[in-house]
């Protein structure tokens, strides 16, 4: 039996099909981007409300304690930001502080506090506030996506951390600042922060040292001092 010859598809029809497919993909991407922007806005709005509520609760508790003639003991901090200032030590590599003036977030627990005590002469650390976490991630944040990539687009975060429910910068900041359920995944995704070294020698009266002295051994954020 002779095989039936299938007539070739005209090039014009192929081109129309290709253009239609590209247009459909473009429309889907645009719709996805619009939905993504709306979702990110709603998340940012929700987190802002949560942070404001946390702040107001702290103020209210302090006022109530003062009114009753008592002292309000703040909750134990759960987050620390650690900066390597000098020295070489194996524990520093466990903390992902491979270079001098590298910084990283650390979840505070018994094990991590013991590690910080071991490397105490080589680091400075303290409890960052929301503003510091925001500025670090927005201005100096890099993600581990096969290599070190600047976090300039929420799509980069969604592709890497979307399976954990982290799809944008606000999700990332929220899980880091509140030490949420996905803190480990969020923190491991972030590259160690490379900070500027102070000009001149690290003397006790150096402005850098004066600024960070109150932060040594787990003091408050320098911006609060």
Automatic annotation (TrEMBL):
<dbReference type="GO" id="GO:0003735">
    <property type="term" value="F:structural constituent of ribosome"/>
</dbReference>
<dbReference type="GO" id="GO:0022625">
    <property type="term" value="C:cytosolic large ribosomal subunit"/>
</dbReference>
<keyword id="KW-0689">Ribosomal protein</keyword>
<dbReference type="InterPro" id="IPR039699">
    <property type="entry name" value="Ribosomal_uL30"/>
</dbReference>
<dbReference type="Pfam" id="PF00327">
    <property type="entry name" value="Ribosomal_L30"/>
</dbReference>
<dbReference type="InterPro" id="IPR018038">
    <property type="entry name" value="Ribosomal_uL30_CS"/>
</dbReference>
<comment type="similarity">
    <text>Belongs to the universal ribosomal protein uL30 family.</text>
</comment>
<feature type="domain" description="Large ribosomal subunit protein uL30 N-terminal eukaryotes">
    <location>
        <begin position="9"/>
        <end position="75"/>
    </location>
</feature>
<dbReference type="InterPro" id="IPR035808">
    <property type="entry name" value="Ribosomal_uL30_euk_arc"/>
</dbReference>
<feature type="domain" description="Large ribosomal subunit protein uL30-like ferredoxin-like fold">
    <location>
        <begin position="81"/>
        <end position="123"/>
    </location>
</feature>
<dbReference type="InterPro" id="IPR016082">
    <property type="entry name" value="Ribosomal_uL30_ferredoxin-like"/>
</dbReference>
<dbReference type="InterPro" id="IPR012988">
    <property type="entry name" value="Ribosomal_uL30_N_euk"/>
</dbReference>
<dbReference type="Pfam" id="PF08079">
    <property type="entry name" value="Ribosomal_L30_N"/>
</dbReference>
<dbReference type="GO" id="GO:0003723">
    <property type="term" value="F:RNA binding"/>
</dbReference>
<dbReference type="GO" id="GO:0000463">
    <property type="term" value="P:maturation of LSU-rRNA from tricistronic rRNA transcript (SSU-rRNA, 5.8S rRNA, LSU-rRNA)"/>
</dbReference>
<protein>
    <recommendedName>
        <fullName>Ribosomal protein L30 ferredoxin-like fold domain-containing protein</fullName>
    </recommendedName>
</protein>
<dbReference type="InterPro" id="IPR036919">
    <property type="entry name" value="Ribo_uL30_ferredoxin-like_sf"/>
</dbReference>
<keyword id="KW-0687">Ribonucleoprotein</keyword>
